[in-house]
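Batch job 17 of 40 flagged for manual review because the log was empty.
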Amino acid sequence: MSLRNNANPDEPLTQLLQQVQSLLPGMRSYLGEPRPGELRVTQDNFSSLQALVDYQAQSWPEAGRLYWFARSWSLLLWKPVVLALVAVHFLQRPLNLRLLGQRGDEAGLTEFSLPARALHPVSNQALRQQAGILKATSEAWQQQLGAVIRVNPALARGLLADRLLSGLLHLQASLNADNAWLAETADTWLQELELQQASGLMSVQLDSGQQRLVLNRKACCQHYRRRDGELCNTCPRLGREERLLRLKQEHEKHATAQ
């Protein structure tokens, strides 16, 4: 999709927001500069981040500090990751994530804003450029969150890599992409972000004979530490065979429901 000669400078970003909305129907977004009170990586967000972490601690005191960090980190990073993937793979344009505003309550950051100037021109180096922006943004958020709660760098890297690959898996059908493209693209993203060992993909064979790529997590999101928590189907605390069985059942159920 080429948008080089678009007469309306807002239209490419509008298309990005529409694509995100189709992929994530519950997410609210608007075109424009961030409003007061929004989280933005270029400003001091100490009070807002403290409230975010405090909410996790007060809601799930039994889960402990590692979970409070993991949950807060995931809430901060998942929109930048999704937006980066959509910008690159649907528009071929890097997105300036420093201009992203996020808002919501302490339970979740469910709304974001972007000004039209956030989108860079179409580029055949869009993935490499976007990976550099995403890496710098995640490092800046890690530094800010570290002023509120102790950061586990290995866990932070693993959760970022997992979010990236799960996002690519989610986009696969919309992009009409085959497994070979997905595997190669996932490797490229991980290499550009210097996260080669932080996550990965593995293959599961369905009863139809179809091979599906699934997430091969290396980091645990710590959800099991909550009183209502359990090990998710991709949890690295489960053995590989157990994960493959669960993921096969999940995909078979999804295929039957369609």
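Reviewer: the log was empty due to a logging misconfiguration, but the result itself is present. The beta strands are 28-31, 101-105, 108-114, 199-205, 211-217. Unflagging and moving on to job 18.
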